[in-house]
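ugh ok so i messed up the first submission bc i forgot one of the chains. this is the corrected input, ALL of the components this time, i swear. 224 residues overall. if the numbers dont match what u have on ur side tell me asap before i send this to the collaborators (the ones from the other lab, u know who)
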Amino acid sequence: KQEVTQIPAALSVPEGENLVLNCSFTDSAIYNLQWFRQDPGKGLTSLLLIQSSQREQTSGRLNASLDKSSGRSTLYIAASQPGDSATYLCAVFEYSNYQLIWGAGTKLIIKP
Amino acid sequence: EAGVTQFPSHSVIEKGQTVTLRCDPISGHDNLYWYRRVMGKEIKFLLHFVKESKQDESGMPNNRFLAERTGGTYSTLKVQPAELEDSGVYFCASSQANYEQYFGPGTRLTVT
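and heres the new structure output, hopefully the right one now
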């Protein structure tokens, strides 16, 4: 049974720092991995999707990597801003089950 | 292009009452998913439609939950009768061939 773990559960850093959020999964038989952002009381915003054949994806200040063999993904945020404060979730798509399996999220606070 | 929409955004009902949530997927997306996040827990898969057919409903908690997708367009999720533990945020997502799922803003359900 696939399990997704995100570490740390919460992170608070000063504005301007670069930071890394971690996601690990137990079964490497995934089709893709998505990183999402959720603001308080709001919906889910897809940030990056990495197909199983890819190693990384970049969008602006965000870079996500995937090491399927070791069951790990990282989300790198460069030059963090207060507007980056949110909960970040990773989820893996299992082709066999056609569903996303979710981590519990990392709550990120960027201090001005 | 309109995104995934959900209605209502928030519903407060009493235990034992009935509530119906609605999801309108992105036009042309054959796949429609329902997920739920209860307080303090990870987001969990509920079910998956392909067009009007239920592909997988293994995540539905019990027979108080009924999902339909009329004509392969919008979907409804009915909870009857609602219990306290049904409180949470219900997310709907849709996808097409590349399996990237696009999420709606969610419906926050509060059962009192």
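quick check: The two ends of chain B are 37 Å apart (CA to CA). that seems consistent at least. The interface with chain A takes residues 31, 33, 35, 41-45, 48, 55-56, 59, 91, 93, 99-106, 108 of chain B (CB under 8 Å).
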